Amino acid sequence: MLKSDRLPGAYNIADLSEMARRRLPKGLFEFMDRGNDDEIAVRENRIALDRIKLKLRVLIDVSKRSQEISLFT
After folding, report:
1. Domain ranges of the chain
2. How far is CA 17 from the centre of its chain?
3. Taking a C-beta distance cutoff of 8 angstroms, is the pair 9, 15 a contact?
4. How far apart (Å, rounded) are the C-alpha atoms in residues 38 and 18?
5. For residue range 21-51, what is the model confidence (pLDDT) as tens digits?
6. Handedness of CA 27, 29, 30, 31 (dihedral sign)
């Protein structure tokens, strides 16, 4: 990874949004941040993303895992 590709301090979408707010002209940032006029798409996307849950698996034996798959069987 190139040094310019890294985003130091960007750990989530809120961090990236704050970095963009500081770098972009105010009008451009507000246009990109708001979505459409009534922000329905932004709200719906946030609700959909909040429904996604990651299942953390720590301390599980992965020595016998396989990437093998079957297609069209």
Report:
1. 9-51
2. 11
3. yes
4. 22
5. 999 999 888 888 776 667 787 788 889 988 9
6. positive
